Amino acid sequence: MASHHPADAHPRPRARSRRIRPLSTAALAAAALALTGCTSLGLAGQLDSVPEYRVDADIAPDGSVAVTETFTYDFKSDPSPGPFRNLPVIVEDRDGQHRPVQVHDVEASSPSGAPADVQEEETGRGWRMFLIGDTGDPVTGEQTYELSYTLTGAVTEGPDGTPELHWPFIGEGWSVPIRTAQVSVRAPGIDAAECAVRNEDEGHESACAEGGTVEAGRAGDGDGTGGARAEFSDGWSSPGRAMDVTVQMPEGTVEVSDDTAFRPLPHWLTWSGLAWMVGLCAAGTALVVLRHKQKQRARGRARVHSPVDPSGLSAAAAGYLCTSRVLKPQHIVAALTEMEERGLVVARPHPERPGGHVFERGDAGVKGGPPAHGVLLAALFSGQETRVDVKDLGPRLDADFGRRMQEALRREGDEQGLYVPKARFRWRALLVAPLPVLAFLVPPVLNDVAYAGLGQLTVIGAVVFGLCLSWSLLPSGLTPAGQNVHADLRRAQSEGDLPPATSLALASDAERSESLGELRPGFEGRVSHAAWGQEFFATVHSSPGSGGASPGFGGGGGGRGGGGGRR
């Protein structure tokens, strides 16, 4: 017998009425952001219990089943509007057929004097949820409730062709332990009856602790009240268990239902949840589109009022801007190439080591050049040195060099207004980053604190909206002018219009070797320059602690049976 757990718990203040009244469309729309009702049960009611639970079911000759549930719910000291109960309306019989079951004439009362108004919550296909109590009048401690309803279509044809009721009178959707459970079924006649306790999470099913008594007979026999009766009892100290009762009746004593139904959709798939998910996702998408258009307008204004020529950047600064402000070995090679062209350094074949190369200090000065050139020149030649072997560069290009090099490249971009100030960027990032997490936490908090009863699809929509909001508000680190320069450099790269050194600085690792061959150094031939570039890369990547890039460079690029519980 298949049915489903509750997916929503959606209590609303209401007038006292012991008859069920469906929620209005406006009331349903008021329930925003949702999480599964199971979460609300598992958190708010984790210390709750049901000391006693009794079910009396009376099977009529027309096949209807009148059910009265009498249970005591212990809310402890935590106030609650009351319990809820969800019932399956599409069940699977023992032949695997899915059959519709109608639940009607739902009423509730409380012998202990607790509010017992009944309201139906919007639920998924395959089950219905009923809320008992009043959000404006919460209760604590032990409260007793009587819930009565009638089932139509629950009696089906058994394997041997006789009427059979196979029903989860206590479903595994209960999130609290039930200490003592009793089920009594009366029918015009009973040939056989059995009871089973199951727990699908643990993957086992067993007979009830007390197999029960069966007073078998036909109408007018048995217990002297016009029928036969079967009784079973059990109890369990952990939640999530179910109690199924199967009653087989003599042929012709009870009408059976042969209606079939489609397999129910998952319990979390509700119309309200789907509407909220679509609405929140649409709102998030609209926010992203609007933010993108806003950025486009800001970039347009920057082109008019504060244009920046990408060719004014050094090759290393251009590469640093286009690789998310991460220093990479190709930026250093590009800077060396420009320094060689300016006469700051000269690359020559090693006089004693065949295939090796050395850098010699040139005659030109660094004044007026990019700041990064001065940092790199100081790292190459310390003191009175005028020559350095390429293979000895690794220890000199350490983490401190990487930090100073990044500061120099950043300073070059700041001078042209390409970067957002670091402090402002970090504060905005810290404020925006938690938004997706907050969006995920809001629904369960509303469920447990305000009894909002929000469903799983709404949570998905809320998280998507939070991600879109974060993306829209998170700064890129580049000003509109910087974004324009970034786009211009990438466009020139795709069109092949960049100088060789700048092309190398922007190249990926896969493109690097080809870019080296295109370099044209100031004092050496093309082949020799490509060779010292390759040797330099090997030196940088083999440096201690490099982790695939030179030290300090920042790394490379990259249920069945329903249930119930606390509301």
Describe this structure in words.
The chain is of the alpha+beta class. It is built from 14 helices and 22 strands. The protein has helices at residues 25-29, 37-44, 271-305, 315-322, 329-342, 371-380, 399-415, 422-432, 435-450, 456-473, 480-495, 500-506, 509-517, 526-541, and strands spanning 21-22, 49-59, 65-74, 83-88, 90-92, 98-100, 102-109, 118-121, 127-132, 142-152, 155-157, 163-170, 178-187, 192-199, 204-207, 210-215, 228-234, 242-248, 345-349, 357-361, 387-389, 563-566. The strands form 5 sheets. It has a 7-stranded mixed sheet, with no helix packed on it. A 5-stranded mixed sheet has the order 1-8-9-4-22, covered by helices on one side. β8 and β9 (127-132) form a beta hairpin. The longest helix is centred in the middle third of the chain and has 35 residues, at 271-305. The model is unreliable at 1-45, 217-225, 513-528 and 541-560 (pLDDT under 50). Residues 1-11 have a biased composition (Basic and acidic residues). InterPro entries: DUF2207. Pfam families: DUF2207 (PF09972).
The low-confidence runs, each spanning 5 or more residues with pLDDT under 50, are: 1-45, 217-225, 513-528, 541-560
**Reading side by side through the largest sheet, how are the strands ordered?**
7-10-3-2-13-17-16
The helix content, as a percent range, equals: 25-40%
Sum up the overall morphology in one term: elongated
State the major sheet. 7 strands, mixed
Number of helices: 14
Radius of gyration over all CA atoms, rounded:
38 Å
Class by alpha and beta content: alpha+beta
Distance between the termini: 25 Å
- Mean pLDDT across the residues is 76
Could you tell me the number of beta strands? 22
Strand content: 15-25%
Region (Disordered): 1-20, 213-242, 542-567
Protein name: DUF2207 domain-containing protein
Transmembrane segments: 268-290, 427-446, 452-474
InterPro entries: DUF2207
